[in-house]
């Protein structure tokens, strides 16, 4: 599942960049990755969202399932409180390329017309920005 996610991120990055992938800043790449992870929540793909978290070690399947249930509860709470998540927009990012960490800023839009800016901590692992 993680391999599919990595491939999706790489394809997304290449498609968005055209032939000049080197012209995209690390800040922009981190911002795009964070948006992609939260769009998984928007589309009900809680498994893909959970698999986007960096874990240096494997986790038991039962714990992964608990995390997926927690993500589904989070989506359900957004539906209850704000009529659901309806949009995810990037609002910038700030990365430290020496430490391979960063923060992306997303603007989440909800069904009740409210918006919330969230800070998404990220870590660069094997060339991919992952949730921290």
UniProtKB/TrEMBL annotation:
Signal peptide stretch: 1-21
Keyword list, A-Z: Signal
PROSITE patterns according to UniProt: PROKAR_LIPOPROTEIN (PS51257)
Keyword Signal annotated: yes
Protein name: DUF4878 domain-containing protein
Organism placement in taxonomy: Bacteria, Pseudomonadati, Bacteroidota, Bacteroidia, Bacteroidales
């Amino acid at each position: 599942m993680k391999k599919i996610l990595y491939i999706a991120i790489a394809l997304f990055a290449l498609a968005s960049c055209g032939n000049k992938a080197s012209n995209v800043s690390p800040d922009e790449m981190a911002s795009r990755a964070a948006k992609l992870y939260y769009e998984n929540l928007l589309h009900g793909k809680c498994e893909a969202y959970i698999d986007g978290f960096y874990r240096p070690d494997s986790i038991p399947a039962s714990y992964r399932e608990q995390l997926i249930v927690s993500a589904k509860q989070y989506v359900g709470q957004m539906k209850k409180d704000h009529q659901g998540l309806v949009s995810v927009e990037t609002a910038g990012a700030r990365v430290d390329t020496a430490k391979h960490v960063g923060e992306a800023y997303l603007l989440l839009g909800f069904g009740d017309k409210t918006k919330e800016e969230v800070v998404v901590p990220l870590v660069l692992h094997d060339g991919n920005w992952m949730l921290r």
